[in-house]
Here is the input.
Amino acid sequence: MATTSATETAAQVARSEPAGRLSWGRVLGLAVLVLGAFMFLFPFYYMVVGALQREPNPGISGAFPNPANLTLANFGDINAQVDLLRTLINSGIFTGGVLLATFVIGLPAGYALAQLHFRGRSVVFNAMLLILVLPFQLFMIPLYVVIVRTYGLADNYLGMILPFAVNATAVFIFRQFFLQLPRELFESARIDGASEFMILRRIAIPLARPAIITAGVVTFIGPWNEFLWPFLITKQQDLQPLAVALANYISNVAARAANPFGSILAGAVVLAIPAVVVFVVFQRQFVESNLGSGVKG
Amino acid sequence: MAVVAPPRRGRLRGLIGPDPIGYAFIAPYAIFLVALFGYPLGLAIYISFFDYFFAAPGAQVARPFVGLSNYAEILGDPTFQRAILSVAEFILINVPLTVVLSLVLASTLNAKLPFRTFFRTSYYIPYVTAGVAVIGVWLWLLSRGGLLNGVLGPLAPDPSWLVSEFWAMPVIALVVTWKGLGFYVLLYLAALQNIPRELYEAAEVDGAGVIRRFMAITVPGVRPATTLVVILATIIGANLFTEPYLLTGGGGPNGASLSPVLLMYREGIEQGHAGYAAAIGVILAIAVMTISAINRFVLEKD
Here is the structure.
């Protein structure tokens, strides 16, 4: 991780303390940060260690990997219970569908909300803001009625994707991005006779690449990690995303099996890796979206 | 938002605005909002007034209008009261802890210390990881013969954390706080950028110590962010489902960690009483919005 990235500059607030000077304050600050990192990272380390143990060792010595006790067998065990490849593909279809809809529908919407003037625009914008704060559980029962009962989309990718299809945060990011672009840029294209569709495709979207990456990362995390909704509407295991299949394994088998932690943790590692990798690779964009969000009060 | 630009072409655009093409761009999103949020929202309120339940496909069932009786039944239901108390307990632990810890970590990250990117990333990792995955490892850590009890030795509670009526909810609150903290650290980090550095320098010249500067400058300076953090953390509390469902086997010993959403799931999906469950949702939504409004009012006053 480059320490002099753009984010660093963005997040940088040089305090009066000159860098490099050793003081009790700095030592204490570092101690706080190290303690924090330990609290946040240790469970992940322990997840990996647990996933690799042949004999589960929940004691203190189990926190230190013992080469004689390491194995990949737990991954085979969980794969026998939960078809990892199949459920990963399901997670991928769910997440991919949401990303696609967010880009195809959200980009023109964000552009219109930022750069075009028409009656009713603020109504759509306010509805979008409302969705960002309304709790999902209000929609759980009626969505279940509509999607499962009315449209019969239980155990169906479309039913899984629909409620998440256009991520409101992503539309918000697109709008904020297009708002920063100078109007003259678009005006001159219009004078040259370009249609709005052409302006969107040839000018706005190519310029929006950073916003697209940021919105993509933010959107990815949602469906990849989502449990409640796909859990409600998928009963067939071969259609379940990995998060749902693993959760069902935890709640059905964990109570019965003698010591199921090795296989649970192996499944957890497989589920966690894609999101953590996406995040670490794109963490600069992720942090920027957060830094730029509406806290400037 | 920008003021409406003067009409570019024609003069009949006054009614719909200068860019009618905007309707074509926004239409798919507007349809999505109406179909998947507007309509279900109306439906939730509608069915909460009916004795609406799921019958076998094809079966004809009467779904009589029952007025407010779903609401009356819920408010008098001891299980619902228990669930509300559990969430109140959750919020009382989660919200103050989140505010204090994330502000302390954000302020520390904000100082020019080495490896900041590493620290910031590490705090954020639980937030981006699936709840189901981290629950797997916490189940192990908190199990009866688990690492935490091993470290505590004779101090370990009996019955153990997740099967203890007393500890189930606090433990869930701590796990959820741990998972979400990185997100709030970033919110505070952003808010801290808006506090002018001169304020700290002036206070230092006046002889104010670190604690004094933190209390007198940082805390009031990030107040809008604190409002947001409190509101978001409250919404998370009201939405609680995955952790009590998986960590404490669907509601804990004696319903000690039953959350309202878990109750909605049981009543609405498992038992088929959709009207009753929809009414729980409406009550929760009203409660969350009221709490948000109060927070906003109290925290943004003066």
Observations:
- Chain A touches chain B through 119 residues (CB under 8 Å).
- Residues 2 and 276 of chain A are 18 Å apart (CA to CA).
- The two ends of chain A are 31 Å apart (CA to CA).
- Confidence is low (pLDDT under 50) at residues 1-20, 293-297 of chain A.
